[in-house]
């Protein structure tokens, strides 16, 4: 038969003191003598006493739990973000509950409701590629639950703090790098255009093309839907059909860049001699490809830390009404063999 959990009343009965004294002793209250605290904590350890967190949260209206929704846990970038979130949250005494939407809007809505049902104090969210309706996030705000977006952030009337990278400037600097390496016909594998990060990277790419007065045609921008390996492969094959074939491709993410590399090799072309390839995110596989992939490194751990710090700041502001902030983190270009020119 299952044994009942030990309660504060059980400890009090065993020691012959009041439940309130036991409760204050467990909380290290200054009014309780050191000897009583010692006896209470020793018995609690002996009987394997654990606080009733549900009852405590009902009394305090806090669970000290943060909810996190990300598109994919297996995604290298998001896995580093998780590490940053956990590091900050646990040091501050918060438990973290993670959900992954799997890039599915309906799953994201379900995850949001599940986290709210578990009474999380606040949420950190990077929304799915399918998400165009933000009503489920507005519901969080209506409940006065702090909400911070990171990486993928909405551009509508949701007024909450955001943690992003400089996507526009990063994409422009990608074009700068390719020009320095003497690649002057640059194409772009664009990501889903409902995501602001994809729009910003496309805009930054176009700004770089205009700035350097490079050759450009509409076919040089290929929209890669899901932005995965298969789409990168398909879109690159479309680029290879052009009469004025590009000699460099800047991909919206590394996975699409891997697809581009395979398409180029399958066509019997060489990287970077015939076509240079540049990615975005600096996945762990970027240094394992042949040639190694030049990529823009996103500060995932720093983004996770910044998002967690901001949310906890808002959670602990009490009655103070903190205005939302938009924090932008910098990126770095990791130069490898896929873009190094042999003609300089």
UniProtKB/TrEMBL annotation:
Keywords, alphabetical: DNA-binding, Transcription, Transcription regulation
CDD domains from the entry?
Answer: HTH_LacI (cd01392), PBP1_LacI_sugar_binding-like (cd06267)
Q: Domain of life of the organism in this record?
A: Bacteria
Please name the GO terms that the record assigns under molecular function: DNA-binding transcription factor activity; transcription cis-regulatory region binding
* Listed SUPFAM superfamilies: lambda repressor-like DNA-binding domains, Periplasmic binding protein-like I
Keyword DNA damage present in the record's keywords: the answer is no
**Keyword Transcription regulation found:** yes
Domain HTH cro/C1-type stretches: 7-50
HTH lacI-type domain segment(s): 6-60
What name does this protein carry?
Transcriptional regulator, LacI family
What species is this protein from?
Reichenbachiella agariperforans
